[in-house]
């Protein structure tokens, strides 16, 4: 329950409704018979929390919405994930606005929201325990032996000359930690090197979001495997660009970098990459193939 989210929304509905106005509310909850309601894995309300959420309303009744199509509806409930499940149970409550002194309700919700937020923050601090480095990385065999998914929150994975460096610098804030320079350890199948750097170089703050950038990750099968198996919680940030402007920029970059040696003529680069092209070829502009 977020003072700026759920509570704020319910307070707004209360304000908008006329006296005795009716609110029909989908309420993903804990279900004794079926366990967790799969239609909304991030927001599950137990009865105690529901009583907080509907403060100012009287519950008139409840119906159980059973459907396998809940997540496919265009107007899906807020927060519903776009997956299909064998059975989804969506309790729907019929609520009536009770007559309250609105300023008092607003102030109550504001205070309550702050208390909830503080309690949840404390719970996060208590729940997170950083495991020892040796429990996730074996330095003798240079291999990953434990869960490293929590070490990497986001990654700028492509494409070269599409603004990845600018994006990396933009993401450096007081709420994030981004490793210096490009880190393409995953393209060489070196997950343990990346994990060790993230563990040792980033401050041990559980609320800090850790990130890297490697413009080649999307084009490399080792990286694909690592993100799927070891960093499956990582959010991938993908930068793309007009293919012709991309080619011009990349070619000119290589001309400057490669000097005094010369780059091949551009008409020879209309297909795949070959030796001497320094990674510049038209095939790499087919971003959709890699995506």
Automatic annotation (TrEMBL):
Residue ranges crossing the lipid bilayer per the database entry: none
Which InterPro entries does this one have? P-loop_NTPase, Sulfotransferase_dom
Q: Which GO terms label this protein's molecular function in UniProt?
A: sulfotransferase activity
Q: Which domain of life is it from?
A: Eukaryota
Extract the Gene3D superfamilies matched here: P-loop containing nucleotide triphosphate hydrolases
Q: What is this protein called?
A: Sulfotransferase domain-containing protein
Q: Which residues form the Sulfotransferase domain?
A: 153-266
